[in-house]
Amino acid sequence: MHHILLIDDEDDIREVASLTLEVTAGWRVITADSGTAGIRAALAEKPEAILMDVMMPEMDGPTTFREMQKLPELANIPVILLTAKVQGVDQRRFSDLGVAAVLFKPFDPMTLAQQIADVLHWDSVAV
């Protein structure tokens, strides 16, 4: 069973995404509602991958990612950014960070697990 950390400041996104990943893929999902809480959760839980919103108050996704990269115990965990920003300049900025991928909101709950599995080269998800 794969283990994912989902960091998003929106309650409904956390609820839909975590329920989707648990039900459609059978993954274990832990959630955090901010970058700071996400870093704490990642250190405590050691997830296999992190799915993180770009736009969050206080510490946004790219800043949270850069902070995680400074910590040896988190630096090798693949991070997938989740964003509503789809303009080319934003996409380039995100990919220049070194994240595993950028997925776009709104996402399709029925294909989210497969998109993540494809990016991370995990076995296919039975939906």
UniProtKB/TrEMBL annotation:
Gene3D superfamilies: 3.40.50.2300. Residues 3-120 form the Response regulatory domain. Keywords: Phosphoprotein. The modification 4-aspartylphosphate is found at D53. The keyword ATP-binding does not apply. One of its GO terms (biological process) is phosphorelay signal transduction system. SUPFAM superfamilies: CheY-like. This is Response regulator receiver domain-containing protein.
